[in-house]
Protein backbone atom coordinates (compact mmCIF):
# COMPACT_ATOMS: atom_id res chain seq x y z
CA UNK A 1 0.00 0.00 0.00
CA UNK A 2 1.39 3.37 -1.06
CA UNK A 3 2.12 5.81 1.73
CA UNK A 4 -0.04 8.92 1.97
CA UNK A 5 2.07 11.95 1.21
CA UNK A 6 2.02 14.91 3.62
CA UNK A 7 0.78 17.16 0.80
CA UNK A 8 -2.19 14.85 0.25
CA UNK A 9 -3.04 14.92 3.96
CA UNK A 10 -2.83 18.73 3.96
CA UNK A 11 -5.19 19.04 0.99
CA UNK A 12 -7.58 16.50 2.49
CA UNK A 13 -7.63 18.47 5.75
CA UNK A 14 -8.19 21.71 3.84
CA UNK A 15 -11.12 20.16 1.99
CA UNK A 16 -12.68 18.74 5.14
CA UNK A 17 -12.43 22.04 7.04
CA UNK A 18 -13.49 24.18 4.09
CA UNK A 19 -16.53 22.10 3.19
CA UNK A 20 -17.57 21.80 6.85
CA UNK A 21 -17.36 25.56 7.40
CA UNK A 22 -19.20 26.19 4.13
CA UNK A 23 -21.97 23.81 5.21
CA UNK A 24 -22.25 25.55 8.58
CA UNK A 25 -22.56 28.97 6.91
CA UNK A 26 -25.17 27.73 4.43
CA UNK A 27 -27.25 25.97 7.10
CA UNK A 28 -27.16 29.01 9.42
CA UNK A 29 -28.07 31.34 6.53
CA UNK A 30 -30.94 29.12 5.38
CA UNK A 31 -32.29 28.86 8.93
CA UNK A 32 -32.56 32.64 9.34
CA UNK A 33 -33.78 33.03 5.75
CA UNK A 34 -36.61 30.50 6.06
CA UNK A 35 -37.70 31.41 9.59
CA UNK A 36 -37.52 35.14 8.90
CA UNK A 37 -39.39 35.10 5.61
CA UNK A 38 -42.01 32.42 6.21
CA UNK A 39 -42.52 32.13 9.97
CA UNK A 40 -41.67 35.50 11.50
CA UNK A 41 -44.35 37.17 13.63
CA UNK A 42 -43.83 40.87 14.23
CA UNK A 43 -44.37 42.47 17.61
CA UNK A 44 -42.59 44.95 19.86
CA UNK A 45 -40.85 42.04 21.52
CA UNK A 46 -39.55 40.51 18.28
CA UNK A 47 -38.11 43.73 16.82
CA UNK A 48 -34.81 43.56 18.81
CA UNK A 49 -34.46 39.89 17.85
CA UNK A 50 -35.07 40.79 14.20
CA UNK A 51 -32.33 43.43 14.32
CA UNK A 52 -29.85 40.88 15.66
CA UNK A 53 -30.99 38.37 13.03
CA UNK A 54 -30.47 40.92 10.24
CA UNK A 55 -26.95 41.71 11.45
CA UNK A 56 -26.05 38.03 11.70
CA UNK A 57 -27.60 37.34 8.30
CA UNK A 58 -25.60 40.18 6.78
CA UNK A 59 -22.40 38.61 8.09
CA UNK A 60 -23.47 35.18 6.88
CA UNK A 61 -24.30 36.62 3.46
CA UNK A 62 -20.77 37.98 3.30
CA UNK A 63 -19.63 34.48 4.23
CA UNK A 64 -21.59 32.95 1.34
CA UNK A 65 -19.72 35.19 -1.07
CA UNK A 66 -16.36 34.41 0.53
CA UNK A 67 -17.03 30.66 0.28
CA UNK A 68 -17.84 31.13 -3.41
CA UNK A 69 -14.65 33.18 -3.74
CA UNK A 70 -12.62 30.30 -2.29
CA UNK A 71 -14.36 28.03 -4.80
CA UNK A 72 -13.20 30.27 -7.65
CA UNK A 73 -9.59 29.73 -6.55
CA UNK A 74 -10.04 26.00 -5.98
CA UNK A 75 -9.21 26.65 -2.33
CA UNK A 76 -12.45 25.26 -0.93
CA UNK A 77 -11.94 21.66 -2.02
CA UNK A 78 -8.54 21.27 -3.71
CA UNK A 79 -8.50 18.57 -6.40
CA UNK A 80 -12.30 18.55 -6.59
CA UNK A 81 -13.17 21.16 -9.25
CA UNK A 82 -16.76 20.00 -9.65
CA UNK A 83 -17.37 20.23 -5.91
CA UNK A 84 -15.76 23.68 -5.83
CA UNK A 85 -18.03 24.86 -8.64
CA UNK A 86 -21.19 23.27 -7.19
CA UNK A 87 -20.72 24.85 -3.75
CA UNK A 88 -19.70 28.20 -5.21
CA UNK A 89 -22.69 28.26 -7.55
CA UNK A 90 -25.05 27.40 -4.69
CA UNK A 91 -23.65 30.05 -2.36
CA UNK A 92 -23.90 32.84 -4.95
CA UNK A 93 -27.42 31.82 -5.88
CA UNK A 94 -28.54 31.89 -2.24
CA UNK A 95 -26.79 35.18 -1.55
CA UNK A 96 -28.30 37.27 -4.36
CA UNK A 97 -29.00 35.09 -7.42
CA UNK A 98 -25.52 35.87 -8.75
CA UNK A 99 -23.98 33.91 -11.62
CA UNK A 100 -20.86 31.93 -10.72
CA UNK A 101 -19.99 31.51 -14.41
CA UNK A 102 -20.07 35.29 -14.92
CA UNK A 103 -18.10 36.19 -11.78
CA UNK A 104 -15.36 33.57 -12.17
CA UNK A 105 -13.47 35.13 -15.12
CA UNK A 106 -13.91 38.65 -13.74
CA UNK A 107 -12.35 37.73 -10.42
CA UNK A 108 -9.36 36.11 -12.09
CA UNK A 109 -8.93 39.28 -14.16
CA UNK A 110 -8.76 41.15 -10.85
CA UNK A 111 -5.82 39.00 -9.78
CA UNK A 112 -4.08 39.27 -13.14
CA UNK A 113 -4.32 43.08 -13.38
CA UNK A 114 -4.78 44.26 -9.79
CA UNK A 115 -5.12 48.03 -9.60
CA UNK A 116 -4.46 48.50 -13.31
CA UNK A 117 -6.37 48.72 -16.59
CA UNK A 118 -8.32 45.51 -17.04
CA UNK A 119 -9.06 45.05 -13.33
CA UNK A 120 -12.88 44.92 -13.02
CA UNK A 121 -12.66 45.78 -9.31
CA UNK A 122 -10.61 48.96 -9.81
CA UNK A 123 -12.11 52.45 -9.57
CA UNK A 124 -11.59 53.42 -13.21
CA UNK A 125 -10.47 56.97 -12.45
CA UNK A 126 -12.59 57.99 -9.46
CA UNK A 127 -10.97 56.68 -6.25
CA UNK A 128 -13.58 58.19 -3.91
CA UNK A 129 -15.70 55.77 -1.92
CA UNK A 130 -18.91 56.67 -3.81
CA UNK A 131 -17.27 56.83 -7.24
CA UNK A 132 -15.44 53.56 -6.79
CA UNK A 133 -18.54 51.81 -5.48
CA UNK A 134 -20.58 53.10 -8.43
CA UNK A 135 -18.02 51.64 -10.84
CA UNK A 136 -17.96 48.40 -8.85
CA UNK A 137 -21.75 48.14 -8.93
CA UNK A 138 -21.95 48.81 -12.66
CA UNK A 139 -19.39 46.11 -13.32
CA UNK A 140 -21.22 43.39 -11.41
CA UNK A 141 -24.86 44.42 -11.85
CA UNK A 142 -26.82 42.46 -14.44
CA UNK A 143 -30.41 42.51 -15.64
CA UNK A 144 -30.39 38.72 -15.40
CA UNK A 145 -29.72 38.88 -11.68
CA UNK A 146 -32.66 41.25 -11.15
CA UNK A 147 -34.93 38.97 -13.18
CA UNK A 148 -33.90 35.95 -11.09
CA UNK A 149 -34.44 37.80 -7.80
CA UNK A 150 -37.87 38.98 -9.00
CA UNK A 151 -38.90 35.46 -9.97
CA UNK A 152 -37.85 34.09 -6.58
CA UNK A 153 -39.74 36.88 -4.80
CA UNK A 154 -42.86 36.14 -6.87
CA UNK A 155 -42.67 32.45 -5.98
CA UNK A 156 -42.23 33.33 -2.31
CA UNK A 157 -45.18 35.75 -2.25
CA UNK A 158 -47.68 34.33 -4.75
CA UNK A 159 -47.12 30.60 -4.33
CA UNK A 160 -45.75 30.26 -0.81
CA UNK A 161 -47.56 33.17 0.84
CA UNK A 162 -44.54 34.99 2.24
CA UNK A 163 -45.07 38.67 3.21
CA UNK A 164 -43.13 40.96 0.87
CA UNK A 165 -41.89 42.97 3.87
CA UNK A 166 -40.25 39.88 5.33
CA UNK A 167 -38.44 39.23 2.04
CA UNK A 168 -37.08 42.77 2.10
CA UNK A 169 -36.05 42.61 5.76
CA UNK A 170 -34.52 39.12 5.90
CA UNK A 171 -33.10 38.76 2.37
CA UNK A 172 -32.72 42.14 0.62
CA UNK A 173 -31.34 44.13 3.58
CA UNK A 174 -28.70 41.53 4.53
CA UNK A 175 -27.67 41.20 0.88
CA UNK A 176 -27.20 44.96 0.55
CA UNK A 177 -25.32 45.07 3.85
CA UNK A 178 -23.03 42.30 2.64
CA UNK A 179 -22.32 44.23 -0.56
CA UNK A 180 -21.17 47.13 1.62
CA UNK A 181 -18.96 44.85 3.73
CA UNK A 182 -17.43 43.15 0.70
CA UNK A 183 -16.74 46.41 -1.10
CA UNK A 184 -15.41 48.47 1.83
CA UNK A 185 -13.34 45.79 3.55
CA UNK A 186 -12.60 43.50 0.60
CA UNK A 187 -11.93 46.03 -2.18
CA UNK A 188 -11.81 49.72 -1.27
CA UNK A 189 -9.65 49.68 1.86
CA UNK A 190 -7.19 46.98 0.66
CA UNK A 191 -6.68 48.41 -2.85
CA UNK A 192 -6.88 52.18 -2.44
CA UNK A 193 -3.74 54.32 -2.59
CA UNK A 194 -2.57 55.67 0.76
CA UNK A 195 0.53 57.17 2.34
CA UNK A 196 2.07 53.73 2.86
CA UNK A 197 3.11 52.39 -0.57
CA UNK A 198 2.03 48.98 -1.80
CA UNK A 199 4.46 46.25 -0.81
CA UNK A 200 4.67 44.73 -4.29
CA UNK A 201 2.99 44.41 -7.70
CA UNK A 202 -0.10 42.86 -6.12
CA UNK A 203 -1.10 46.39 -5.10
CA UNK A 204 -2.95 45.16 -2.03
CA UNK A 205 -2.83 46.25 1.60
CA UNK A 206 -3.84 44.21 4.61
CA UNK A 207 -5.95 46.37 6.93
CA UNK A 208 -4.35 46.71 10.35
CA UNK A 209 -7.06 45.15 12.49
CA UNK A 210 -6.99 42.17 14.82
CA UNK A 211 -8.02 38.68 13.71
CA UNK A 212 -11.40 38.82 15.47
CA UNK A 213 -12.38 42.10 13.81
CA UNK A 214 -10.96 40.81 10.54
CA UNK A 215 -13.27 37.81 10.75
CA UNK A 216 -16.31 39.90 11.65
CA UNK A 217 -15.82 42.49 8.92
CA UNK A 218 -15.07 40.34 5.88
CA UNK A 219 -13.99 36.81 6.79
CA UNK A 220 -10.32 37.90 6.84
CA UNK A 221 -10.37 39.50 3.38
CA UNK A 222 -9.70 42.91 4.91
CA UNK A 223 -7.16 42.15 7.60
CA UNK A 224 -5.28 39.65 5.43
CA UNK A 225 -5.93 40.84 1.88
CA UNK A 226 -2.28 41.07 0.87
CA UNK A 227 -1.76 37.51 2.10
CA UNK A 228 -4.64 36.42 -0.12
CA UNK A 229 -3.03 37.95 -3.20
CA UNK A 230 0.28 36.34 -2.31
CA UNK A 231 -1.41 32.96 -1.89
CA UNK A 232 -4.84 32.73 -3.62
CA UNK A 233 -4.94 29.01 -2.87
CA UNK A 234 -5.09 29.65 0.86
CA UNK A 235 -8.70 29.49 2.11
CA UNK A 236 -10.18 32.37 4.10
CA UNK A 237 -9.84 30.56 7.42
CA UNK A 238 -6.15 29.81 6.74
CA UNK A 239 -5.02 33.39 6.06
CA UNK A 240 -4.04 34.23 9.68
CA UNK A 241 -1.86 31.12 9.83
CA UNK A 242 -0.37 32.05 6.47
CA UNK A 243 0.75 35.40 7.89
CA UNK A 244 2.16 33.80 11.03
CA UNK A 245 4.15 31.35 8.93
CA UNK A 246 5.52 34.18 6.79
CA UNK A 247 6.49 36.25 9.84
CA UNK A 248 8.20 33.25 11.44
CA UNK A 249 10.06 32.50 8.23
CA UNK A 250 11.33 36.07 7.92
CA UNK A 251 12.31 36.10 11.61
CA UNK A 252 14.17 32.82 11.14
CA UNK A 253 16.13 34.21 8.22
CA UNK A 254 17.01 37.33 10.18
CA UNK A 255 18.18 35.23 13.12
CA UNK A 256 20.34 33.12 10.83
CA UNK A 257 21.90 36.25 9.36
CA UNK A 258 22.57 37.66 12.83
CA UNK A 259 24.39 34.48 13.83
CA UNK A 260 26.71 34.56 10.83
Structural commentary:
This protein has 260 residues and is mostly helical. It has one domain. Helices cover 70% and strands 0% of the residues. The relative contact order is 0.11. Pfam families: FA_desaturase. InterPro entries: FA_desaturase_dom (IPR005804). This is Beta-carotene ketolase (CrtW type).
Fold topology:
Elements: H1 6-39, H2 47-72, H3 81-96, H4 100-112, H5 129-140, H6 143-159, H7 164-191, H8 211-218, H9 225-230, H10 239-259
Helix pairs in contact: 1-2, 1-7, 2-3, 2-7
Pfam family, one: FA_desaturase
GO biological process, one term: lipid metabolic process
Domain Fatty acid desaturase: 49-141, 143-252
How is this structure best summarized?
With about 260 residues, the chain is mostly helical.
Q: Give the tally of structural domains.
A: 1
Q: What best-fitting shape do the alpha-carbon axes yield?
A: globular
Strand content: under 5%
What radius of gyration results from the CA coordinates? 20 Å
Q: On the 0-100 scale, what is the average pLDDT?
A: 92
Q: What's the helix-strand series?
A: HHHHHHHHHH
Counting DSSP E segments of at least 2 residues, the number of strands comes to 0
**How does the helix and strand content classify structurally?**
mainly alpha
Helix content: 55-70%
> Roughly how many Å apart are the termini?
45 Å
User: For this entry, what is the oligomeric state of its chains?
Assistant: single chain
Number of helices: 10
Low-pLDDT residue spans: none
Major beta-sheet overview:
none
Amino acid sequence: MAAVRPADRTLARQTAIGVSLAAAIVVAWLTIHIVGIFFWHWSLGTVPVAIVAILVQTWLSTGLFIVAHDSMHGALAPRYPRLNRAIGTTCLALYACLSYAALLPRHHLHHESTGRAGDPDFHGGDPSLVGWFTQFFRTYYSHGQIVRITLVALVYTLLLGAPLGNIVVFWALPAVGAVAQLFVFGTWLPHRDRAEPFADSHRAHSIKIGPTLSLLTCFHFGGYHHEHHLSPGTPWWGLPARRRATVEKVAGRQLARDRT
